[in-house]
Amino acid sequence: MNSRISILFTLVAVSIALTSPSQAFPPPSEKQLAHWLKRFPKADTNKDGKLTAEEAEAFRKKFFRNRKSARPSAPPAPKVDPRWENKAFPKNAVSLKSPEEIKEIFAGLTNGPAVTSYPRPKDGSLRIIGTGHSFMAPGYKTLPQIAQAAGLRQPPLLTHTGGGVTGSTRYKWEQENGIFQFDGRPKPRLLASLSNAKWDAMTWGPYFHDRPQYYECWIDFALKFNPEMKFYLSDAWPQLDQLDKLPSSSEELTPTVFEKLGKEKNEFSRGLIGGLRKAYGKKIFIMPTSDAMVLAVKYFHEKKLPGVEGIHKLIGKKDRSLWRDRLGHLGPGFGQLEGYVFYATLYGKSPELIKTDISFSGVNGYPGWDLDRTFRKIAWQAVVNNPLSGVMDKNNDGIGDE
Predict the structure, then answer these.
(1) Domain spans in the chain, listed from the N-terminal domain onward
(2) Residue 225: which residues within 8 A CB-CB, separation 6 or more?
(3) Which pLDDT belongs to residue 68?
(4) Rounded Cα gap, residues 391 and 285, in angstroms
(5) pLDDT at 126
(6) Residue 38's pLDDT is what?
(7) What does each C-alpha distance from 199 to 112, 129, 167, 227, 284 come to in angstroms?
């Protein structure tokens, strides 16, 4: 793949293509346009030496038309209600009601407690609330086991999840509030607890065509009742649909290929998180699962992943691979790696400091203890080397610097 065009796809798709009245991103700055012109002179169609947003958008569209036949199909852009562009949500939005009213609404929808609440843990454990989809599920499943093995009495996670777009931040906000596609049918599972209890962190999984405002609404609501909260977005990982065409053999799945795909993911993360940080400061962080999976590819080629047989099951047909399907769900055992990345980012400690073995649900002894310890090493490398994780370890003691 032409990496320069790939980066253009990410940058322009995020910063230019989404600048129409129906989108949330601001127009690109003169500095951005000048930078793109230097890298992509062909985008300047009238050859006046100045790149406009319209020319950059036209260049992007032409690129997509030319590659459409070769590029594997990616999920289409979800239909977004145009009322997201309004300055305020509808008056019937649950988030506009009082905590008592929100609690009462959810109480009528559940057989359990309307509000989940935990006292502040004395051992530094975090009270975590979150949304997410199937890419978040492995980490959500393994994180509690990892925290327990680290000696923490972390309260159970409170999550509101779904498959695909139904687990995205936008979808869950509409569903919890009873607005737009859920008009009059609210399900404030998280809003009830956010407004009536204390929480330390909120986690999300990204989705295609995300906009900052899908996160801002959650942040604003959470900070209203929990001003010390921090927020963490997993950046997922590289997917085959980023390539021009499907590889014909596993030999094409090199570390260099995945490093390029990982850089595309990082470009998107920097664009999204960078904007949110301007508004909220260093309350927003990345859980770098993408960097961890890119590192895992490198480790595999160096024969440092004991028991792993391939990179991608779709290409190499090996069950014990890093990825198992076209969309990019993780292969067996790699949910442990994601959980370690979550733990390392949230707690600022290396999983390598955990001395005990953890009994994850494997099959026939896979993953083994050696592979699990390699996951711990990869996770810490990924976290401390990503500036958006908020974790640094300059003295290499396995504990994040304050």
Answers:
(1) 3-67, 86-384
(2) 99, 194, 195, 196
(3) 43
(4) 9
(5) 98
(6) 76
(7) 19, 7, 20, 10, 15
pLDDT for res 49:
86
CATH ID of 86-384, from 1.20.1530, 3.40.1000, 3.40.50, 3.30.1490: 3.40.50
Q: Is 317 exposed, middle or buried (0-12, 13-18, 19+ CB in 10 A)?
A: exposed
> Which residue ranges of the chain lie beneath pLDDT 70?
1-28, 31-32, 60-75
Average pLDDT across the chain, whole number: 89
Residue pointed to by tokens 């990179």:
311
Listing from the earlier edge strand, what are the strands of the sheet with 201-204? Answer: 158-161, 128-132, 201-204, 230-234, 284-287
Residue owning tokens 């009462």: 104
354-401: pLDDT as tens digits: 999 999 987 788 999 999 999 999 999 999 999 999 999 999 999 999
Residue-wise pLDDT tens digits, 117-149: 999 999 999 999 999 999 999 999 999 999 999
3-state secondary structure the chain: CCHHHHHHHHHHHHHCCCCCCCCCCCCCCHHHHHHHHHHCHHHCCCCCCCCCHHHHHHHHHHHHHHHCCCCCCCCCCCCCCHHHHCCCCCCCCHHHCCHHHHHHHHHCCCCCCCCCCCCCCCCCCCCEEEEECCCCHHHHHHHHHHHHHCCCCCCCCEEEECCHHHHCHHHHHHHHHCCHHHCCCCCCHHHHHHHHCCCCEEEECCCCCCCCHHHHHHHHHHHHHCCCCEEEEECCCCCHHHCCCCCCCHHHCCHHHHHHHHHHHHHHHHHHHHHHHHHHCCCEEEECHHHHHHHHHHHHHCCCCCCCCEEEHHHHCCCCEEECCCCCCECCCHHHHHHHHHHHHHHCECHHHCCCCCCCCCECCECCHHHHHHHHHHHHHHHHCCCCCCCCCCCCCCECCC
